[in-house]
Amino acid sequence: MTAARSPARPTPRADAHTPARPVRAVRESRQRILAAIREAAIEEFSLHGLKGTSTQAIAERAGLTKPQLHYYITGKEELYSELLDSVMKAWKIEFAPPGLTEPADILAHYIRQKLDHAFDQPTVSRIFTREILDGGHNLDRYWPNARIWIQKEVAIINGWIARGLMRPMNAHLLLMHIWAMTQHHADFALQVREICGSERDPAPLDRETVAHDLVPFVLRGCGLMRD
Asked: Which of 155, 157, 152, 146 is nearest to 221 (CA)?
């Protein structure tokens, strides 16, 4: 004789009183506000630098009052340091990623990565440039690590030169030339639009147009591409 089965318990159904929902809503709201603060800070710092930016301006651009802003951040220095960190991390591109072994392929990849950053995050790039123009006083802690990873790139390039794979040149200058030509499209985007654009086509230079000319230009200069 089989025992009678007890009736199945109904599965609890989430309702408006379930605590997980308001907690998630609060978390999502906080994330949206922090994202708005970050975007506002990027715009203000790229325009005015650290000294010229006020928390009042950041708050207004983010759609907050100043007391509301300070509920989420301690001060503008905290935001500025975070944004400089993001610039340096974004620029620390893996110079020779797995799968790429030829100098021409590695340099082409590097140039495209730098162009992507210039086109995707121009205001973030301008924060770094403005910091340099203001004397770079907030970059002291970044230089030691920057020198280390740049020296690794220089060593790779010098290795190519020593093996006769590319034309002899100053590896540091090669990297700085690439930075200048790619970062130009972030820092001097206004100039590019005014010089190259028109009323009909105000943004004539997209990243593929630039890459199409810039990559062969660098590779030919390095002796890595023939006409």
From this structure: 157
| CB atoms closer than 10 angstroms to residue 57 | 19
What is the amino acid identity at position 99? G
Question: Tens digit of pLDDT for each residue in 152-207?
Answer: 999 999 999 999 999 999 999 999 999 999 999 999 988 988 888 776 766 668 89
Q: Length of the chain, please?
A: 227
- Name the residue type at position 93: I
pTM for this structure? Answer: 0.78
88-119: pLDDT as tens digits? 887 777 788 889 999 999 999 999 999 999 99
- Cα–Cα distance between 71 and 56 in angstroms, integer? 13
Residue 158 tokens, joined: 């010098």
Measured between alpha carbons, how far is 44 from 191 in angstroms, rounded to an integer? Answer: 20
- Residue 118 tokens read as 């210039």
Name the residue among 49, 23, 47 with its Cα closest to residue 137.
Answer: 49
